[in-house]
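Every protein is a chain of amino acids, and every chain bends into a shape of its own. The fold becomes a row of whole numbers, each drawn from a learned catalogue of backbone shapes. The protein below has been through that process, and both of its lines are reproduced in full.
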Amino acid sequence: MTSLSERLEAARRQAESQGKHAGEPDPSDERPGGAAPADALSAPARPAEPAHPKPAAAGPLSQRTAAAATGTNRSAQVRALAGNESDRIEELKASVHSELLKELGPHLYDSEMDQAELDQRVRTVLAEVLSAQDRPLSNSDRARVTQEISDDILGYGPIDPYLRDPEVSEVMVNGHNDVWLEKGGRLSKADAHFADEAHLRRTIDKIVSRIGRRVDESSPMVDARLPDGSRVNAIVPPLAIDGSALTIRKFATDPLTVDDLITFGSLSPQTADFLAACVRGRLNVIVSGGTGAGKTTTLNVLSSFIPSDERIVTIEDAAELQLHQDHVVRLESRPANIEGKGAVTIRDLVKNSLRMRPDRIVVGEVRDASALDMLQAMNTGHDGSICTLHSNGPRDTLARMETMVLMAGMDLPMRAIREQVASAVDLIVHQSRFKDGSRRITHITEVERMEGDMITLQDVFVFDNSAGFDENGRVLGRLRSTGLRPKFIEKLAYANVAVDPALFRTDRP
């Protein structure tokens, strides 16, 4: 019996011999004179390997790889075709748009032509121009081109569908290729874009020119409004670095009512009754809150409580209040012209309104020295005035009011300003926007009196957030009474307005 070492040596020699048959001869095994080794001579001759070996049969992995490559190529071809089709549609839109302007140019700005007649005329000429094109179009492409060109000429281009959508509350354009929407208090990116910067600038010019304003490099910021009352702000280069920015805050055709705010949870039924009594009782009210907190909507609702037999003067930068009383005079400020002259500020309008025999003065937003004139109006017999102001809370509201009074340039001592504020303002309604997008009134605060050098405040209703949030992140809290009765109850009684004491019970649901 051979030993284990002999068997291992034999196995090694056999493996080396098989390796030499399968590949090139080992140079170490060559004999002098080029003779082949003995085991190679005894083996049968093998055919020579071809220069390009035949590929092995494809296995499952190679089949999947080939299929994936084919699918990738097909997807690339589909994307290329879609891109070519999109380019063709854009070229067609440009040519049709140009032809339409040639046909209808003088009529597009004819002030005597009715809007419905202009719309019909544009669509008729558009159908004729499309029929004259030598490029065939499917019905869906024809409808798309017709709608987009109509929106561009009669409306506001690619954002026009979102302005018609009742669920969209705000449209934000951050450059020609970046459009965002606000729906239900949350932001989402829109599947729309302008063709280029020039296209966006034409749309902005169309909006602002309709109310006699302009925007260009010399005057690169503008506040305007749409015919339905929606608020528009535009800022263009060189101030807007990445292209023109357009922000449109929409207002519903049918403005929200107090019942809508109760349904949304912005306020409770008892706080609604309390605020209605305060407005009827001619208290001076400031609605405060951050940007987008819903101050203007609340101001609309509070103004709806004003009796219809009183004369109301509204003052705004861009007219957006929607009051339904019969006796309303609406005033709007005006920016300077191209020569830097002719500006009419909110402060000028507040001063002028005092000569118009107003029962109520409603200021859309106090943001500058007009605060001093507003305080003067509240302190000189124009009770029941309402205005809005940006702030983080009731105490900050008074601090901002003091700061804006100082902006008037009057060298007034701080105590005199605070005495004016404490005497003029009766109630602060503070509103906040929560993480879930909801807008809630968080404080209804009475402005009491001066104690030393400080104005004392008393919360009548405060938002209770102890319930936290539900599984979807929605706020579960609500406004609750603090149990304290405001001091101005006597003032309301003097105006023949009764307030139910049960409104201030803390155990009310």
Remarks:
- DSSP finds 15 helices and 15 strands in the chain.
